[in-house]
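Now for a specimen:

…
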Amino acid sequence: MLSIVEVRVDNIYIYRKYAVAFYPKRFYSLIEPTRMIMGVIKMLSKKDQNICETFAIHLRRHFPEAQLWAFGSRARGDGSWDSDLDICTVIAHVNPLTNDIIRDIAWKIGFENDCVITTVIMDYHQFEHGPMSESTLIENIHKEGIPL
């Protein structure tokens, strides 16, 4: 039996390696957390972790400086089987060619894994200082995003 670490968030007990959700006298799920911020557990399923890692490897062949975050329902761990996998990609310069390259990679990796990957593509300036930097989208990426 794994011992409990002193954290409990909404009926989820955090163990040394695993988060196990318990409901009265019933085991519900076994998931591996990837990040915990401000008391909220951030997690991706193993399948989603593998998809994100594959996407990051392929993307960084073209854009080594890219910063990537998985966000949305799958990053929170509450996505359904048909939820898309949201990935924010921040690179040095964005133009139609870079958009096409990133979206082609997302389509290829998603198709191979029976998953729709939705990309949000921005340059560093847009992400950090542009009007979008004050949007709820960027706020949510900072709040719930999992760096890849």
About this structure: The first strand starts at residue 4 and ends at 9. The chain has two domains: 4-31, 43-147. Strands lie at 4-9, 12-15, 19-23, 26-31, 33-37, 40-43, 67-71, 85-91, 117-123, 146-147.
